[in-house]
Protein backbone atom coordinates (compact mmCIF):
# COMPACT_ATOMS: atom_id res chain seq x y z
CA UNK A 1 0.00 0.00 0.00
CA UNK A 2 2.77 2.46 0.96
CA UNK A 3 4.66 1.52 -2.19
CA UNK A 4 1.61 2.25 -4.31
CA UNK A 5 1.05 5.59 -2.62
CA UNK A 6 4.71 6.51 -3.10
CA UNK A 7 4.60 5.56 -6.78
CA UNK A 8 1.41 7.56 -7.29
CA UNK A 9 2.91 10.60 -5.57
CA UNK A 10 6.10 10.30 -7.63
CA UNK A 11 4.20 10.12 -10.90
CA UNK A 12 2.11 13.11 -9.90
CA UNK A 13 5.25 15.08 -9.05
CA UNK A 14 6.93 14.12 -12.31
CA UNK A 15 3.88 15.14 -14.30
CA UNK A 16 3.90 18.48 -12.50
CA UNK A 17 7.56 18.97 -13.30
CA UNK A 18 6.96 18.35 -16.99
CA UNK A 19 3.97 20.66 -17.15
CA UNK A 20 4.29 23.68 -19.43
CA UNK A 21 1.58 26.17 -20.29
CA UNK A 22 1.14 29.38 -22.25
CA UNK A 23 -1.17 32.40 -22.31
CA UNK A 24 -1.20 35.29 -24.76
CA UNK A 25 -3.22 38.45 -25.44
CA UNK A 26 -3.27 41.13 -28.14
CA UNK A 27 -4.15 44.77 -27.38
CA UNK A 28 -4.80 47.48 -29.96
CA UNK A 29 -3.52 50.89 -28.78
CA UNK A 30 -2.86 54.33 -30.21
CA UNK A 31 -0.80 57.39 -29.28
CA UNK A 32 1.65 56.83 -26.44
CA UNK A 33 0.18 53.90 -24.49
CA UNK A 34 0.58 53.17 -20.79
CA UNK A 35 1.56 49.69 -19.60
CA UNK A 36 1.52 48.53 -15.99
CA UNK A 37 2.78 45.05 -15.11
CA UNK A 38 2.68 43.40 -11.69
CA UNK A 39 4.33 40.04 -12.24
CA UNK A 40 4.68 38.25 -8.89
CA UNK A 41 7.61 35.85 -9.23
CA UNK A 42 7.84 36.03 -13.01
CA UNK A 43 10.73 37.39 -15.02
CA UNK A 44 9.64 40.21 -17.33
CA UNK A 45 10.92 41.29 -20.74
CA UNK A 46 9.45 44.33 -22.48
CA UNK A 47 10.72 44.99 -25.99
CA UNK A 48 9.86 47.67 -28.54
CA UNK A 49 8.52 46.78 -31.95
CA UNK A 50 7.55 48.78 -35.04
CA UNK A 51 3.87 47.87 -34.63
CA UNK A 52 1.43 50.00 -32.68
CA UNK A 53 0.05 47.13 -30.61
CA UNK A 54 0.83 45.45 -27.30
CA UNK A 55 1.35 41.69 -27.50
CA UNK A 56 1.82 39.79 -24.23
CA UNK A 57 2.82 36.16 -23.80
CA UNK A 58 3.16 34.28 -20.53
CA UNK A 59 5.08 30.99 -20.52
CA UNK A 60 5.27 28.67 -17.51
CA UNK A 61 7.19 25.50 -16.69
CA UNK A 62 6.03 23.46 -13.71
CA UNK A 63 2.80 25.43 -13.36
CA UNK A 64 -0.52 25.39 -15.14
CA UNK A 65 -2.24 28.64 -16.10
CA UNK A 66 -5.80 28.93 -14.86
CA UNK A 67 -7.83 27.94 -11.79
CA UNK A 68 -5.53 26.40 -9.18
CA UNK A 69 -2.44 27.54 -11.04
CA UNK A 70 -0.94 30.79 -12.25
CA UNK A 71 -3.62 33.42 -12.83
CA UNK A 72 -3.53 36.36 -15.20
CA UNK A 73 -5.73 39.35 -14.40
CA UNK A 74 -5.70 41.88 -17.22
CA UNK A 75 -7.77 44.71 -18.56
CA UNK A 76 -7.58 47.59 -20.98
CA UNK A 77 -9.10 51.05 -20.76
CA UNK A 78 -8.37 53.07 -23.87
CA UNK A 79 -4.60 53.16 -24.32
CA UNK A 80 -3.87 51.93 -20.78
CA UNK A 81 -3.15 48.21 -20.34
CA UNK A 82 -2.69 46.48 -16.98
CA UNK A 83 -1.45 42.91 -16.56
CA UNK A 84 -1.11 41.14 -13.21
CA UNK A 85 0.39 37.67 -12.82
CA UNK A 86 -0.56 35.83 -9.62
CA UNK A 87 1.30 32.71 -8.50
CA UNK A 88 -0.47 30.23 -6.14
CA UNK A 89 0.96 30.27 -2.63
CA UNK A 90 1.31 26.47 -2.69
CA UNK A 91 4.34 26.84 -4.97
CA UNK A 92 6.38 28.02 -2.01
CA UNK A 93 8.60 25.24 -0.77
CA UNK A 94 8.32 23.07 -3.87
CA UNK A 95 11.66 21.55 -4.75
CA UNK A 96 10.61 19.31 -7.60
CA UNK A 97 12.72 20.07 -10.65
CA UNK A 98 12.63 23.30 -12.62
CA UNK A 99 9.88 25.88 -12.34
CA UNK A 100 9.78 29.16 -14.20
CA UNK A 101 7.36 31.91 -15.16
CA UNK A 102 8.25 34.27 -17.98
CA UNK A 103 6.25 37.23 -19.28
CA UNK A 104 7.30 38.68 -22.63
CA UNK A 105 5.64 41.81 -23.97
CA UNK A 106 6.14 43.60 -27.29
CA UNK A 107 5.09 47.23 -27.28
CA UNK A 108 5.22 50.43 -29.35
CA UNK A 109 8.55 52.22 -29.01
CA UNK A 110 6.96 55.28 -27.32
CA UNK A 111 5.65 54.09 -23.96
CA UNK A 112 4.87 54.97 -20.37
CA UNK A 113 5.91 51.78 -18.56
CA UNK A 114 5.51 50.72 -14.91
CA UNK A 115 7.01 47.26 -14.32
CA UNK A 116 7.00 45.38 -11.01
CA UNK A 117 8.07 41.86 -10.06
CA UNK A 118 8.56 40.33 -6.64
CA UNK A 119 11.26 37.77 -7.46
CA UNK A 120 12.39 37.95 -11.05
CA UNK A 121 14.52 39.89 -13.48
CA UNK A 122 13.34 42.82 -15.60
CA UNK A 123 14.67 43.44 -19.10
CA UNK A 124 13.80 46.43 -21.31
CA UNK A 125 14.86 46.94 -24.92
CA UNK A 126 14.37 49.84 -27.29
CA UNK A 127 11.84 51.74 -25.18
CA UNK A 128 11.40 55.53 -25.37
CA UNK A 129 9.47 57.42 -22.71
CA UNK A 130 8.93 57.40 -18.96
CA UNK A 131 9.93 54.04 -17.46
CA UNK A 132 9.82 52.60 -13.96
CA UNK A 133 11.16 49.15 -13.04
CA UNK A 134 10.97 47.64 -9.55
CA UNK A 135 11.93 44.11 -8.42
CA UNK A 136 12.32 42.72 -4.93
CA UNK A 137 14.97 40.16 -5.88
CA UNK A 138 16.33 40.21 -9.40
CA UNK A 139 18.53 42.05 -11.87
CA UNK A 140 17.44 44.95 -14.06
CA UNK A 141 18.80 45.25 -17.59
CA UNK A 142 18.03 47.92 -20.17
CA UNK A 143 19.41 48.70 -23.60
CA UNK A 144 18.61 51.26 -26.32
CA UNK A 145 16.47 53.23 -23.87
CA UNK A 146 15.53 56.88 -24.26
CA UNK A 147 14.04 59.32 -21.76
CA UNK A 148 13.42 58.82 -18.04
CA UNK A 149 14.27 55.72 -16.01
CA UNK A 150 13.56 54.99 -12.35
CA UNK A 151 14.81 51.50 -11.43
CA UNK A 152 15.04 49.75 -8.05
CA UNK A 153 15.99 46.23 -6.97
CA UNK A 154 16.36 44.76 -3.52
CA UNK A 155 19.05 42.27 -4.55
CA UNK A 156 20.61 42.30 -7.99
CA UNK A 157 22.69 44.22 -10.49
CA UNK A 158 21.48 47.16 -12.58
CA UNK A 159 22.97 47.53 -16.06
CA UNK A 160 21.38 50.09 -18.42
CA UNK A 161 22.31 51.89 -21.62
CA UNK A 162 20.57 54.65 -23.55
CA UNK A 163 20.00 58.37 -23.91
CA UNK A 164 18.76 59.66 -20.56
CA UNK A 165 17.28 62.93 -19.30
CA UNK A 166 16.39 61.74 -15.80
CA UNK A 167 17.91 58.75 -14.02
CA UNK A 168 17.24 57.15 -10.63
CA UNK A 169 18.93 53.77 -10.00
CA UNK A 170 19.15 51.88 -6.71
CA UNK A 171 20.11 48.38 -5.61
CA UNK A 172 20.66 47.06 -2.11
CA UNK A 173 23.27 44.53 -3.26
CA UNK A 174 24.82 44.51 -6.71
CA UNK A 175 26.88 46.42 -9.25
CA UNK A 176 25.51 49.36 -11.24
CA UNK A 177 26.67 50.04 -14.79
CA UNK A 178 25.34 52.93 -16.86
CA UNK A 179 26.17 53.92 -20.42
CA UNK A 180 24.56 57.30 -21.07
CA UNK A 181 24.66 57.76 -24.83
CA UNK A 182 25.37 60.99 -26.70
CA UNK A 183 22.56 63.48 -26.21
CA UNK A 184 22.06 62.54 -22.56
CA UNK A 185 21.62 65.54 -20.26
CA UNK A 186 20.56 66.15 -16.69
CA UNK A 187 17.09 67.73 -16.71
CA UNK A 188 17.07 67.08 -12.95
CA UNK A 189 19.28 65.42 -10.36
CA UNK A 190 20.50 61.90 -11.14
CA UNK A 191 20.79 59.44 -8.23
CA UNK A 192 22.76 56.21 -8.67
CA UNK A 193 23.28 54.08 -5.56
CA UNK A 194 24.19 50.59 -4.41
CA UNK A 195 24.53 49.20 -0.91
CA UNK A 196 27.30 46.79 -1.89
CA UNK A 197 28.94 46.86 -5.32
CA UNK A 198 30.80 48.98 -7.83
CA UNK A 199 29.37 51.92 -9.78
CA UNK A 200 30.62 52.45 -13.33
CA UNK A 201 29.21 55.37 -15.33
CA UNK A 202 30.11 56.18 -18.95
CA UNK A 203 28.83 59.52 -20.23
CA UNK A 204 29.34 62.00 -23.11
CA UNK A 205 32.44 64.16 -22.74
CA UNK A 206 30.31 67.30 -22.59
CA UNK A 207 27.93 66.16 -19.83
CA UNK A 208 27.44 69.07 -17.39
CA UNK A 209 26.76 68.22 -13.73
CA UNK A 210 27.71 68.84 -10.13
CA UNK A 211 29.27 65.51 -9.23
CA UNK A 212 29.06 64.12 -5.71
CA UNK A 213 30.58 60.65 -5.29
CA UNK A 214 30.95 58.70 -2.06
CA UNK A 215 32.07 55.15 -1.26
CA UNK A 216 32.33 53.48 2.12
CA UNK A 217 35.32 51.43 1.00
CA UNK A 218 36.77 51.84 -2.47
CA UNK A 219 38.42 54.16 -4.97
CA UNK A 220 36.93 57.00 -7.04
CA UNK A 221 38.11 57.69 -10.60
CA UNK A 222 36.84 60.50 -12.86
CA UNK A 223 38.03 60.89 -16.44
CA UNK A 224 36.18 64.07 -17.47
CA UNK A 225 36.93 67.81 -17.39
CA UNK A 226 36.46 69.01 -13.81
CA UNK A 227 36.83 72.31 -11.99
CA UNK A 228 39.90 72.99 -9.89
CA UNK A 229 37.83 73.93 -6.84
CA UNK A 230 36.92 70.40 -5.98
CA UNK A 231 36.67 68.71 -2.60
CA UNK A 232 38.26 65.29 -2.34
CA UNK A 233 38.98 62.86 0.47
CA UNK A 234 39.91 59.19 0.48
CA UNK A 235 36.37 57.99 -0.21
CA UNK A 236 34.52 61.12 -1.38
CA UNK A 237 34.64 63.63 -4.21
CA UNK A 238 32.71 66.82 -5.00
CA UNK A 239 33.42 68.64 -8.24
CA UNK A 240 31.83 70.18 -11.33
CA UNK A 241 31.82 68.45 -14.69
CA UNK A 242 32.01 70.80 -17.68
CA UNK A 243 31.15 73.83 -15.59
CA UNK A 244 28.47 72.19 -13.47
CA UNK A 245 24.73 71.62 -13.59
CA UNK A 246 22.16 69.52 -11.73
CA UNK A 247 23.48 67.07 -9.15
CA UNK A 248 24.95 63.74 -10.23
CA UNK A 249 24.94 61.70 -7.00
CA UNK A 250 26.88 58.42 -6.92
CA UNK A 251 26.90 56.26 -3.78
CA UNK A 252 28.15 52.81 -2.81
CA UNK A 253 28.54 51.27 0.60
CA UNK A 254 31.39 49.03 -0.48
CA UNK A 255 32.95 49.29 -3.96
CA UNK A 256 34.73 51.51 -6.44
CA UNK A 257 33.24 54.38 -8.44
CA UNK A 258 34.35 55.37 -11.93
CA UNK A 259 33.06 58.06 -14.31
CA UNK A 260 34.54 57.88 -17.79
CA UNK A 261 33.75 59.33 -21.22
CA UNK A 262 32.26 57.39 -24.09
Describe the structure.
It is a single chain. This protein has 1 helix and 21 strands. The protein has 262 residues and is mainly beta. The chain has 2 domains: 89 residues, no CATH class; 124 residues, no CATH class. The chain has a 21-stranded mixed β-sheet that branches.
Question: Short description, anyone?
Answer:
With 262 residues, the protein is mainly beta.
What can be said about the biggest beta sheet? 21 strands, mixed
* Structural class by helix and strand composition: mainly beta
Order of helices and strands: HEEEEEEEEEEEEEEEEEEEEE
Poorly predicted spans:
4-18, 91-95
Terminal residue distance: 70 Å
Extended strand count: 21
User: Helix coverage percent of residues?
Assistant: under 10%
For the record, the count of structural domains works out to 2
Number of helices, where a helix is a run of at least 4 consecutive DSSP H or I residues: 1
| Strand residue percentage | over 45%
Mean pLDDT over all positions: 90
Query: Radius of gyration from the CA trace?
Result: 22 Å
Shape, per Cα inertia axes? elongated
